[in-house]
UniProtKB/TrEMBL annotation:
EC primary class: transferase
The protein's name in its UniProt record: Probable nicotinate-nucleotide adenylyltransferase
Residue ranges constituting the Cytidyltransferase-like domain according to the UniProt record: 6-163
Natural source organism: Pontibacter saemangeumensis
Top-rank taxon: Bacteria
């Protein structure tokens, strides 16, 4: 079983995340893509995040009818902030017969060498890199485990969606209906 891992704050999950995850699950050699909800990203301030259980619930609602996608809360019980190498190590121990592939945006490549144990990630795991709008392509020299995937580029951000919600502007077609309803009912991002 080859599992792609798309880590994110998903604050909130939107169609850009979903299109990318589904594309990776159906247009590469991955069997499934798990969306890993990160409770705290070491590179982002945590005071802007909704509670992780709200974000997990929105991801669950967004993917409930797609068998190509799964959701993981694996980092909820791990030390914070979350480090990708620790999560990958834990998942590999928990699921020894699975092959885990890290999915990351091209915009993360310049920061990748600063990630905790980035060299170990590349040594033990494949990394699929997708294009991001405005990114400058940065090849990782002599890294055979890195594959660039020509996935669709969608310039939609969770920050923009949060601003729309706060300003009571439409988010139609940017969010799955179930996620938009969850945000409305729970009065999130207001």
């Amino acid at each position: 079983m080859k599992v792609g891992l798309l880590f994110g704050s998903f604050n909130p999950i939107h169609i850009g995340h979903l299109i990318l995850a589904n594309f990776m699950a159906t247009n590469t050699d991955l069997n499934v893509v798990w969306l890993v909800v990160s409770p705290q990203n070491p590179f982002k301030p945590s005071n802007t995040l909704l509670h992780e259980f709200d974000r997990l619930q929105m991801v669950t609602l967004a993917i409930e009818d797609n068998l190509n996608l799964g959701v993981s809360n694996i980092e909820f019980s791990m030390p914070r902030p979350s480090y990708t190498i620790d999560t990958l190590t834990y998942l590999q121990e928990k699921y020894p017969s699975y092959e885990f592939v890290l999915i990351m945006g091209e915009d993360n490549l310049p920061l990748f060498p600063k990630w905790k144990n980035s060299e170990r990630i590349l040594e033990y795991h494949r990394v699929y890199v997708y294009p991001r709008s405005g990114s400058i392509t940065t090849e990782l020299p002599d890294m055979p485990n890195v594959t660039f995937v020509k996935a669709p580029v969608l310039d939609i951000s969770a920050t923009f969606i949060r601003q729309c919600v706060k300003q009571e502007k439409s988010t139609k077609y940017m969010l799955p209906d179930a996620v938009a309803e969850y945000i409305k009912v729970h009065k999130l991002y207001q």
